[in-house]
UniProtKB/TrEMBL annotation:
It is an enzyme of class 2 (transferase). This is Acetyl-coenzyme A carboxylase carboxyl transferase subunit beta. It comes from Sphingomonas kaistensis. PANTHER family: ACETYL-COENZYME A CARBOXYLASE CARBOXYL TRANSFERASE SUBUNIT BETA, CHLOROPLASTIC. Residues 23-285 form the CoA carboxyltransferase N-terminal domain. The gene is accD. The keyword NAD does not apply. A zinc finger (C4-type) spans 27-49.
Length: 285
């Protein structure tokens, strides 16, 4: 035991949770050590370099909604492991492990609440659950969220984060792409806005469907957004890609998205967008 550990352990007034591991947060981008409390109060954005860390669905809801208050919507039950898929591990075992690690049932949650006084239904894709991958459970939860928005005549806002389709569900995962597209059309027919916030990373089949269909496309700073990976593209076209390729700022410059919004500004921006796009939806709420 080093002298430092001995000294630390002898400090009895530190609560148990606050070990050096939880007291400090190391920034993944600039390596700065920041007090976890300071980092959390800064919406999990590095106060030194402004790196926007990936955040879990419930944390997102707590940050986004007024006073951190929201109602979680139930996600539909789906048939699990329809293909009885197995690679190096059984798919059912992978799901079990992801559930234990994340304490969530799958990679998508919906909640209803107020953003600066405006009501909305918000869906969040959780990258921590099998890379946020889009399977039948994610597709079904997304459709359920949109249906809830139509029933309540409220805007639907989605935060995307995914490595792509869930390959263990094969064609059924790819079917979620047109399925989500049809649901978004239903929302549009009801005259309600669909607002997308792209977060780090949004790639693959998710980018090829519901992540790019927003009436307004927002992204968090520095978010990786693309279809195929940079290495695959470089090997295919045999060219070096420019710096910052597939980052939110690059996409904004090239007209793929409408805004890059700091996490601190998200509530105000979403609030104004709801005012512009769906003032009537707030009349009944
Ligand atoms: Zn940093």
């Amino acid at each position: 035991m080093s002298w430092l550990t001995r000294v630390r352990n002898s400090i009895s007034f530190l609560p148990k949770r606050q070990t050096t591991d939880t007291l400090w947060h190391k920034c993944k981008k600039c390596d700065a050590m920041v007090f976890t409390k300071e980092w959390e109060d800064n919406l999990q954005v590095c106060p030194r370099c402004d790196h926007h860390d990936r955040i879990r669905a419930r944390t997102r809801f707590a940050q986004l909604f007024d006073e951190g208050e929201y109602t979680l919507l139930a996600s539909p039950d789906v048939r699990e492991d329809p293909l009885k898929f197995r690679d190096t591990k059984k798919y059912t075992d992978r799901i079990k492990a992801a559930r234990t690690a994340t304490e969530e049932k799958d990679a998508f949650l919906n909640a209803r609440g107020k953003i600066e006084g405006r009501e909305a239904i918000v869906g969040v894709q959780d990258f921590a659950f099998m890379g946020g991958s889009m399977g039948v459970a994610v597709g079904s939860a997304l459709v359920a969220g949109i249906k809830a928005a139509i029933a309540a005549k409220l805007p639907y806002i989605i935060f995307t984060a995914a490595g792509g389709a869930r390959m263990q569900e094969g064609i059924l995962s790819l079917m979620q792409m047109p399925r989500a597209t049809v649901a978004i059309e239903m929302l549009r027919d009801a005259g309600l806005p669909y607002i997308v916030v792209l977060t780090d990373p949004t790639t693959g089949g998710v980018t090829a469907s519901y992540a790019m269909l927003g009436d307004v496309q927002l992204a968090e700073p520095g978010a990786l957004i693309g279809f195929a990976g940079q290495r695959v593209i470089e090997q295919t076209i045999r060219e070096k890609l420019p710096d910052g390729f597939q980052r939110a700022e690059y996409l904004l410059e090239h007209g793929m998205i409408d805004m890059v919004t700091h996490r601190r500004e998200l509530r105000a921006t979403l609030g104004s967008l709801i005012d512009y796009l769906a003032p009537a939806s707030q009349a009944a709420a």
